Amino acid sequence: MSELVKPVGTRAIARDAVRARISEVAVDLFDTHGFDEVTVEQIAAAVGVSTRSVHRYFPAKEDTVVADPAGLGERVRDAFAARPEDEPVWDGLLASYEALLAAPGRDEQRGKKAMRVLGSTPALRARNLEKHLLWARLLTPLVAARLGGRDAPLRAEAIVQSSLACFDIALTAWAESDDETGADLLRRTFAALRPAA
Predict the structure, then answer these.
(1) Could you tell me which of 61, 189, 183 has the C-alpha nearest to residue 127?
(2) 73 and 141 both lie in a single domain
(3) More confident: 95 or 69
């Protein structure tokens, strides 16, 4: 067996499939009826599982939309860590977000729907902010190490938070667009701040 491929048991595969199905159905219901109008009981009934099962996979209703912020943040962090040390930090962050958008198996229409839902209510916008703070904690130390200097942590935090704002703005615009890609919009938002970075 290849050292690059870690074996995954059937139980983990089934768990991931159920989790993905619950999230998919929930986002569809939220997009159609509105986040506040849909209950966990309705999600459970539409999936064909118990309410308790939904809560086992997603402790809060908001989690069905936000997915796995830690896992996605770790992918961005790892992509940034793998970038060349001499690359400008801003370019490395852009490439790291682009790598996330280019991940295999990503469903564009599903992603657009989730982004529309994510911006539809204060509770989900707050959860998205929590995701940004988590990602910032993962990225800021790496950026600070590349910047160096006495105020590196402060500058790193400003750069990382700015990059997250660009990422969020690009994906929000992409969710409403019929003909632009998330990667194109991401490059444009990053370009808008390039002189300042």
Answers:
(1) 61
(2) yes
(3) 95
